[in-house]
Design brief:
The protein is an alpha+beta fold. Strand 8 and strand 9 form a beta hairpin. The chain contains ten helices and ten strands.
Amino acid sequence: MSLHPIAKEIPILKQAAQVRFLSKGFSSDLKFVADDAYLVRVFPAEDIKRRRDEFDTIRALNHFSEYVPKAIHFERVEGTDKSYMVLTYLPGKDGEEAMIDLTEKEQYTAGVEAGRTLNNLHHLKAPDDYPAWSEVKRKKNDRYLQGLEDLPVESKLKKLLRDYIKANEILLHGRPNTFQHDDFHPTNLLIHNRQFAGIIDFGRMDWGDPVHDLHKLGFFSSRISVPFTKGIVDGYHERTGAGDSFWELYALYSAMHIVSSLVWGMRFGLEMFKKMEAFSYDVLADHDDFKRIRPIWYGEV
């Protein structure tokens, strides 16, 4: 299969003995692997500021963990409207694909290392001038709640979500601002040689409450592997344990994520909306309609 013509304009790809194209994932980036050592991500030059911030953040994260790709190079593609970044390529299968081949103990152990790694990455603080998390998150969620009103969802569900979120928004106040991967789920977590091997795809990175990075566990991760998901929670809280203060925030962010995923799903059509709706009802069941803050999949402690 011939490569995209843009590959001929990027030095590291022109010089490589072997280049392959990656098509998996939701990202609109063109992705190439050079000699199984480097990942090249190509994107529109109009996104250069946001992507430069992403690249610089990955470089900063290199100081906190070896499970993050190393940031190597960032440049415009000569004579085109494209730019690109070069990262080291981390080998392995994504967690969703790999879990089926692991024992439950291996799944849990991989989760512990993934959670421990995420905790390390959260030591990177947000820029000093970044706005308060409570302000950012509340405004964003209010927009999603408004969008929820226009969706074909049961009115009692809309009321349950709105009332629960509004009653617990006070938990947002005073929360720290740190790095957020913002897409932390098995598809972006690598398994290699039956062990956790890295975190990838930082294109949605943001700044805010570190606990928010765990809000997709019940939505995506637990349906793939409960041991892996429990391991993430335990690894993340290795030093302190996951107490009620964590679970209160986790439940709030889970409710907010139901709202945003329903609105997001409808943007991609009825089929995606129905999928997000089914996932949402699973989360509601896990929390007994938010009468409990700790989800059923985690169990009692």
